[in-house]
Structure formats: C-alpha cells, structure tokens
Model the fold of this input.
Amino acid sequence: MEAIPHATRVGVLWDPATPSHALALKALEATGKKLEVKLQMVPASTVEEFDPAFTTMTTEHVDCFLVVPSVFAYSNRNSLANLALKYRLGGVFQQKESVEAGGLMSYGADTLDLYRRAASYVDRILKGEKPADLPVEQPTKFELVINLKTAKALGINVPPTLLATADEVIE
Done:
C-alpha cells in the first residue's frame, strides 16, 4: 500500500479454475479487514474474461489490483499488463516476469533461488536420500520489483523509500 497510499478499494483478480484460490481469497479477505481495505473479488478463468474483469474493477472504482498467482495468470502476464495500462490500474503480481511485461510491481519468492534449492534436493535424492525424509522448506528469499516506466504511465509517484527497498527497478 506504500506505492498507492490512498488506496481504499483493491481489485483481486483470481481464477475460479485454480483450486488453491479459495484458500487464498479467505486469507486476502482477512488481510483486507486488518488493513481496512475494501476488496473487490473479480474472477477470470479465460483470456476473454480479462477485459470484462477490468471493466468491473473500473466500475467499482478500485484504486489498484492484485493478481492471485496461478499458471493461468503467469501465462497471460502480457495481456494483464496491457489491460492494466489500458484501464489505468496499478497491478501487483507475484512474479518478476509480470513486471518485466509491464506490470507495476511484484513481490514474491525469488524463483531462481527456489530452482537452486530444488537442485540441491535432486542431488540429495540422486545420492540415495529418501524424498519422504527431506524436510519441507519455505521460501527464504523474496524480491520486490518495481516498473517505474509503468508507474509514470499511470501517474503513480513511487516513494523513494519504497524504491530504496526494491531488489530491482525497471526504468
């Protein structure tokens, strides 16, 4: 919320076809209440539903939107970034690639770090360790990526304090 401090209404773009999204929506609703932010849940499970979803967010006067991560959203990151610019909405994504495609910002686990850590698990398994004996690990390295070009196009002034904490700034 630091990038858009006046935001009181946030659109949440989610995919009803993604089973994990039901749990994610519950967690988001709880967080929205804590932050005193009104969430507008907007489903989209096909590319054809994206434009109407953005129309709904605009009609509902959301200040920005959040994309609940899924393979579907990731695969269509270019379309989402283009629609965000068309409808003049700042979007927050989980993956850096969505920001590289033109999204406003992302915050999520560092994918390269996850791949490196997965490789060590593969190595251990190939050396004879049983997968069931390996501990489940949570991500430990997260990255914040901000697209200043998109921010400028949307008329968003990203605070210097937020830029200073970003792992990467795309200009």
About this structure: The longest strand covers residues 9-14.
